Structure of Phosphate ABC transporter substrate-binding protein:
Amino acid sequence: MNKKSCFTFFSVLSLIASILFSCTQQKSSSSEQITVGESKLLADESLYPIVDDEYQIFAENYKRAQINISYKPEQDIINSLLTDSIDIAILGRELNPKEAQHFEDKKIIVRSTKFAIDGIALVTGKSNQDTLITVEEIKQAFEGKGNQEQVFVFDNAKSSTVSYLMELTNVKVFPKNVYALKTNKEVIRYVNEHPNSIGIVSVAWMKRPTPDIAAEVENLKFMSVKTEKGTFEKPSQTSLKLKTYPLTRDLYLINCQGKAGLGTGFASFLASELGQRIILKSGLAPDSLPSRKINIRH
């Protein structure tokens, strides 16, 4: 083979290799499917117990799917969605009209999958004799009109529990006896050490506490909140499902991928019978009740 032929041969070989490499790169970048590939998801940190339960079972069933989940306050998650740094999230609410408009302007269809009903729990020490509270009393406390010696603590100034209560009470700034710590765990530990205080946490943390705070949760109890009918309700699967407990919220997976990727796959799993059974076992209320098999013996 002469030098010219040799040069031509290696030039063609290099071109083929370049094309193959380019195809491989394109295939790799678009390889995410509903149960295959890798993606990122931000979840409301107040929902850690139930989201972690769901993902562990999802990962066991779909070995080729990897979702890297980070837990953050609601405000941080919304900011990440609106700056397009994340496109899958789990929140205690749907996007509001202003937030949804961001995606409408970009021609991206947002798919919201409701998968559970949670509640905002008011918890106190088991030794506290005061176990009843009304929504009006909550509003007065947050307006600074209630008992100033009664301490209320919640997880984070940017959390979903705070935004829920601000909307409920129409209060923008809380008084000195209502203040934020950093996490749900810190709230539970604080109330454990100050049993006459009132902690505000997701029901999920009381129903499915992580092992490191399980002992502290045992020392706490739910407060009963007055309903519109005049009765008092604690958060339970029944009162969450029927929404007779006054402080309920729906949980959603928000999928802004605009394609059939892992967001679609995980949302489908959450809404599936297996996903709903995990919710049922957790103590929260599933969006749809799983079917029951009844064996009849003749």
